[in-house]
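Annotators were shown the component list below and the corresponding predicted structure, then asked to write short factual statements about the assembly.
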Amino acid sequence: MSILHSDLHLLTGAYALDALEPAELDAFERHLTSCGSCEIEIRGLRETAARLAFGVSLPPPPAMQQRVLDATYQIRQLPPLTSPHPHGQHVLPERLARLRRPRFGIAVAASLAVASLATVIVLGIAQVRATHRLDSARSVAAVLAAPDARTGSRPANGGGTVSVTVSRTQGEAVVTAIDLPPLPSAEVYQLWLMGPAGARSAGLLPSAQHGRTAPLLATGVSNSDRFGITVEPAGGTTRPTTAPLIVMPLPT
Amino acid sequence: MVRMETSRTSRERLGDAPAEEHEGEDLGRLLSAVARGDHQAFETVYTRLAGPIYGMVRQVLRDAAQSEEVAQEVLLEIWRTASRYDSAKGSPAAWALTIAHRRAIDRVRSETACARREQDTAADDAAGMTGGDVVADTVAASLDQQRVRRCLDGLSSLQRESVTLAYYGGYSYPQVAALLGVALGTVKTRIRDGLIRMRDCMEVSW
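Structure shown to annotators:
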């Protein structure tokens, strides 16, 4: 037991740098609930790691600040925790520690979901600021927040990734693309809904900022549709005239 | 043509202290103000932490667009969870950068990110470890950089490589062991010894 523990104790450094793989992370976090000295050491090593970040500080792209500050007006903050906190209580009973784990997992999953939603909100705001289409941003948010929202992404032929979030009950989808090859000004990327009756236009992808397009809202989406994107002359066409760089079914 | 509006929206809100009131304040007090919904305090937090967050995420992910996306997520997470910051568990900067590093690692360990990172690595390596923007850095940041470099120089090469591959490279320690061709246990202890030496060299208080 003591050999095992001293062995685990050596993982404080890797833990502080988020360098443990899942299985070991789990074992180490279980060990942490009963290792006060580990906790103290990790605190110091995390402070050290933060200094490593300050050592490679880089000015972020200037437009990021306004986008982030604007987005804070759209995001509700978490209330403080009011339940008694296990402060300075290093030794948690093993069963309690086990009970906590899944809740922690859920909290992490939820916070990741909120974070990716936040990113889309940021992008949505950029879109609104660019086009003043408030209604569109509200619909984008409605799709993303729909209980049946499903998201999928796929690489496109020729480079880049296309992401689709669909709400089947609303019959709407939000489409964004990252790193599609830039087009000459006479061409655009056009989104198509391809159903049994043929392809219908779902709009033109907005031009990319920092490699990423603002979200495009597609309406009238039905369950049998697939999404396709083609390169078309500026202004778009009524039927696809080139081979699609991507065809993807609705995410499930 | 779509054009980004550059006009600043008015962020004056009831209850916000004027921005200059926050300037010299420590991050802990700023975070308490942020937790109460103070947008001006958040703006000051942004100016202090966006650089290290973005710089570190960029080291890990390489791809500029993805790094910006992750840095934005992290800053909004700081806004959203400011009330959960607990000073008993560490400094505000360590709290924020722990969130940021984990978020970058989550991204790196998803497959698509890896593929794109590999493409970008060669170009970025040519541009040097911190990219071409060093000149624009603040004096404070360059002092931090000098100190980190000096302390990294004080490590054994195995310690240094283990620490930097894990933190800046975003590799797990078994991956670091494979990259360096040394035993798992060796990397495990070198990361810990190396970090402890860095801690002492930089006189980190905690």
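Statements collected:
1. Helices of chain A lie at 2-9, 12-16, 22-32, 36-54, 63-72, 94-131, 134-145.
2. Residues 85-106, 127-134 of chain A have pLDDT under 50 and may be disordered.
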